[in-house]
Each structure stands twice: as C-alpha cells, then as structure tokens.
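User: Sequence recovery, please. Input:
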C-alpha cells in the first residue's frame, strides 16, 4: 500500500504505519497464522542431470515460473572434478539455492518465498527435471509473529 507525503501529513498517517502496511504486503496468512515466508528444505535423491549446469539453470527457471515468482538473477558454479553445481536464483520474493553431488545422485535445495508465490509448486518440477527416485521436503514458516 502506497501513501503520498501529503496523505501522511493530511490524514495523520504515521510513517511507522506506512512501513508496517508495506511489510504486510509480503507476509503470508495461512491457517490463522501470519509469517514472513515459506522455506522448503528439499533433498533430491537417486537423481540425474545434477552435473549439467544448463539443465540446472533451466530447472531453476521452471521452478520460478511454476511458483509464480519473479526471477532477478541466477548465479551457478560448476565444480571439478566431480561436476557438482552450487548456485542461487535470486527472486523478488527471496531465493532458490542448490548444491549438487552428482556422484551420489543427490542435491540439497532451499526454496524460500514470501508474498503470493507458491514455493510448493517447485517440488514436482524438481522431481520431474532430475528424474528423482525420492524427494524429501521439510517446510518451515519463517518470521512467525513478526506482523499480525
């Protein structure tokens, strides 16, 4: 919610109220609880393509699209000799990070999003893209009780 300077002065709006309203725009209310964002900790096992940096880039972009998030940038690094990839997709709503161990068919991902983005929609994208035999997901609601 945006307020002009004249509204703040004319309508007696406090600048702290304006900041509180702006912060609330990104907070999530679910099941009667208000929190900053949903943080998914994802383990992908028995997976393929974890050494292919272009495939990982495409997969992260597909996750962002599926979640309804806004991509700002992606930075990936390919390690040698095992071929693992670490990197992050920076989002307007937060981030997606990946660390892969292709020699073990394993990747650890964090998907953290606030606002209207739906991070859970990234999970089936990851499972399909990496042909994962197993995907484990833990969900944490970050910043509970900060605004409400």
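Assistant: Recovered sequence (148 residues):
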């Amino acid at each position: 919610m945006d307020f002009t300077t004249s509204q703040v002065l004319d309508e007696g709006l406090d600048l702290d109220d304006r900041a509180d309203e702006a912060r609330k725009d990104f907070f999530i209310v679910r099941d009667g609880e208000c929190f900053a964002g949903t943080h998914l900790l994802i383990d992908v096992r028995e997976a393929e393509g974890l050494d292919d940096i272009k495939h990982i880039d495409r997969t992260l972009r597909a996750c962002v699209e599926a979640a309804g998030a806004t991509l700002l940038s992606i930075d990936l690094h390919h390690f040698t000799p095992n071929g693992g990839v670490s990197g992050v997709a920076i989002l307007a709503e937060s981030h997606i990070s990946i660390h892969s161990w292709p020699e073990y068919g394993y990747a650890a991902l964090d998907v953290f999003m606030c606002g209207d983005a739906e991070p859970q929609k990234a999970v089936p994208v990851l499972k399909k893209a990496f042909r994962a035999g197993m995907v484990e997901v833990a969900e944490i609601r970050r910043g509970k009780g900060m605004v409400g």
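The beta strands are 28-30, 33-35, 37-45, 71-78, 85-91, 94-101, 106-113, 134-142.
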